[in-house]
Design brief:
There is one protein chain. By secondary structure, this protein is α/β, with parallel strands linked by helices. It has two domains: 4-97, AMP nucleoside phosphorylase, N-terminal domain (amp nucleosidase, domain 1, 2-Layer Sandwich); 134-375, 3-Layer(aba) Sandwich (Rossmann fold), CATH 3.40.50. The protein is built from nine helices and twelve strands. The strands form two sheets. Strands 8-11-10-9-12 form a five-stranded mixed β-barrel. β6 and β7 form a beta hairpin. α4 crosses α9 (343-371). It is globular. It starts with a strand and ends in a 22-residue tail after the last helix.
Amino acid sequence: MPNSMRLNHADFTSKKQIAEATEKACDLMEEMYDQGMYPRMIVHREFSDHNPTIKGELAQPSAFRWYLLREMRRLLKKNADIEIVAKRNVMPLNDPQLLDHTDEEEWDFTKKKMFLFSPERTDISLDRLYHYTGTKPEDFQRYILFTNYSMHVEVFLELYPDCVKPAREGVQMPAYHHKLGENKGLTLINIGVGPSNAKTITDHVCVLRPDAMIMVGHCGGLRNHQEIGDFVLASSYFRDDKVLDELFPIGNPVIPNYLLNQFLKEVLDTHNLSHRIGTVFTTGNRNWEFSAKDTVQKIHQSRSLAIDMESSTVATNGFRYRVPHATLLCVSDKPLHGKPKLSGAAQAFYQNSKEMHLKLVIEAIDKIKRMYPNGLPNSSIRAFNEPLMGGGE
């Protein structure tokens, strides 16, 4: 096995040559990792005045090979040169020093987003992803849907009966993968209820650099002129879930990806479905109605139009980890208007809404894939001193 490879942009005169060279580069990185070494990628960009050299180490490159291929091809087309070397030994997950290499306080945000996570962080996240979902990291697709209802899983299985399913029973957050070439398919994860689960799964999923994450859930409608079954498209979030407050200051604005929202709204309008766009209030207290005074005051002050338990958590981690994200909810109850979520009515609502809800999001993603086959533009979720990502760049 060679211990290094250099891709000079000047050596390639066609897309085919670039494609073949990047395939070989990924083969080498996977071989390096399989033989116990982290591959290190060094990108030389003479066209950048402020950030000419970016570099980082990678773990389990086979898990997101599609992403590495796309990024390297873009870089070579922009006249960058890429060097790959075997840098250091893979650290076992039971090494006492592992946590010294996974602390996010050590992030260098001037790196390209493919190097955002340390290889140790990638290794432990992908191990936990398999533990929680019962599926291999390689099975995950570019478009990730989160739900907390088994009924959405039922619809997904009806639509894609041949999808990859959990390899064992009883996993905490089972995942289902409709696999397509270059990982252009769909992944649905039943994350369960609550912001802690939402944080846990997005901590690990984001390592795979998905093109989009969408929360497909239900909510309590908070406005008079909402009806059960109406849809809510989040334009902002009130973060009352608490789980990320210490990691990401509550004052930082978090908004969904504009283009994702645009496609979701287009689908809602096409089907002439009643919906509202506005602030989604995410709480960590499932029984907030039992101490409603404080919560209702926050709802009024924020002009929130829906309440749930996961949306802002998914959105905040999507923002932190530079992954385009959005939320499409369906009103299942109106707790402030004498229509609490009661078992009989809830079951009838679920039965009537489950298929349409999931199909709407899938329709929007199909439109996105046709319009932006190489990923959504996402400059809105990079800092001023980060390399341009431009949809994955």
